[in-house]
Amino acid sequence: MRNHLSGGSPDRDSINQSAKPKITRRQFLARGAAGLLGAGLLTGGYAWQGEPNWLEVTSVELAFPQLPSAFAGTTIVHFSDTHLGFNKDARDIASLAEQIRKVSPDLICFTGDIVDSEPEDLEESVAELAELHAPLGKYAILGNHDYKNTEKVTGLLQAAGFKVLRNHSYLIKQGGSVMAVAGLDDQLHGKPDPEAALKNIPPGTFTLLLMHEPDYADTAQAYPFHLQLSGHSHGGQIRLPLLGAPFTPYGSLKYIAGLYYTEEKGMPVYVNRGFGETYMPFRLLCRPELTVLTLRRA
């Protein structure tokens, strides 16, 4: 007769656990490094080939007591910083133009850096941009990257049907009322002159300001502008969780992305994150943007 004693023989679980091989420190470090490398490659691939091609259409409504009733409900498409010749080309502009046509805007505004450096990089996109239509017009300003040959860039934008505003304004008439679009020269490479831009605008006219560098809003608020549209910052282009953008260029240190109001006068400033990239072909947590603004009467 077999004698069964408790603890006389090991159970199956203890045998299985003792048989499992222990991971060495070297194996642990190797697996951790492989995991980090894999995550880095995935993030890098997304930041390079994914997010730069993932356009976000942002809708914003703003109300103004100074807006004439005839312009209530006006839709403005705002895009910026295409940086043609670096990581974007005519095929990308065709894709962007398709999105703009879907909106059927009343007004189209571009706030600078149409090219990254060479004016010739705009040539292939002129025909596509010329096909964009807005009943209240298409308006553009120059950014700091457009200054290698301002005359040629200006000529190409005009060939695409844009009115290029350099310390200049344009009056828009509708339903017996008037609003104005003003554009300033670039802050970094030009000479912005708000007084010159406002010279032909009747007092009390609702005025939309296009200015490449958003931080200039703290200067512009002293003048009779009612809304400033800007670009330049790219939203930082690379944003980190909880930290935001670790770097933005001079001229966009305060106003970086989205809607702000200046401290003294409460003038609204909208900063578009841009369509293209510069210096590095990456975006992270900062998708390219097309902004659709609707003006309301308060």
Automatic annotation (TrEMBL):
GO terms for biological process: lipid A biosynthetic process. GO terms for cellular component: membrane. It holds the Pfam family Metallophos. It comes from the Bacteria. This is Phosphoesterase. GO terms for molecular function: UDP-2,3-diacylglucosamine hydrolase activity. It comes from Paenibacillus donghaensis. InterPro entries: Calcineurin-like_PHP, Metallo-depent_PP-like, Metallophosphoesterase_sf, TAT_signal. PANTHER family: PHOSPHOESTERASE, TRANSMEMBRANE PROTEIN WITH METALLOPHOSPHOESTERASE DOMAIN-RELATED. Residues 75-235 form the Calcineurin-like phosphoesterase domain.
